Amino acid sequence: MASVGTIVWLSSELMFFAGLFAIYFTIRSVRPDLWETGTEHLNVVFAVINTSILVISSLWCQFGVAAAERGQGSRTGGLFQFRQWGMREWFVLTYIFGSIFVAGQIYEYAELVEHGLTLSSDAYGSAFYITTGFHGIHVIGGLIAFLLIIGRSFTTRRYTHRQATGAIVTSYYWHFVDVVWIALFAVIYILR
């Protein structure tokens, strides 16, 4: 039931982001001149690296889900024996990569503000910060969910399918956030 509820909720989130994409494309069609000047400040190489960090975090997340489905909440070997890691270790790594992504976004915002591109500078700045900002808020929500799932893994002696369900639905959300970012990245950084 939790999986179905999460999928239904993610469908509503999909509509939310579809609205943000509509805003972005509408403003772009009305004021294409702003895109010529606004995109010149984007650091595409940095954005590619930051996007790669988020995509890799989805891979770590999926390794954690596989461990959760095996009933392995935590590692059974040494810290550097990756094949014996459990859900907890993979989710901690996912959390670290997700946090690095958010820090990268904050760094990019600081760079853009330094170049005069702010939320209120023009329509391009508004569209950029609203779309990427709401995505960042969703990433932070996913990081909080990871902390809750990691915390719950410490409170159970035996990791069962019931505990794994939380890890699985958290992964649905994380993969959704990842796919949305890939679409945003393509629209903002590639279709300049």
Automatic annotation (TrEMBL):
UniProt membrane topology term? Multi-pass membrane protein
Regions crossing the membrane: 7-27, 47-68, 89-107, 127-151, 172-191
- E.C. designation(s): 7.1.1.9
Sorted alphabetically, which SUPFAM superfamilies does this protein's record hold? Cytochrome c oxidase subunit III-like
* Stored Pfam families: COX3
Keywords for the protein's UniProt record, in alphabetical order: Cell membrane, Membrane, Transmembrane, Transmembrane helix
Q: Heme-copper oxidase subunit III family profile domain location, by residue?
A: 1-192
The record ties this protein, via CDD domains, to: Heme_Cu_Oxidase_III_like
The record's subcellular locations are:
Cell membrane
Question: So which domain of life are we looking at?
Answer: Bacteria
Matching InterPro entries: Cyt_c/ubiquinol_Oxase_su3, Cyt_c_oxidase-like_su3, Cyt_c_oxidase_su3-like_sf, Cyt_c_oxidase_su3_a-hlx
Recorded family membership: Belongs to the cytochrome c oxidase subunit 3 family.
Q: What is this protein called?
A: cytochrome-c oxidase
* Native source organism of the sequence: Mobilicoccus caccae
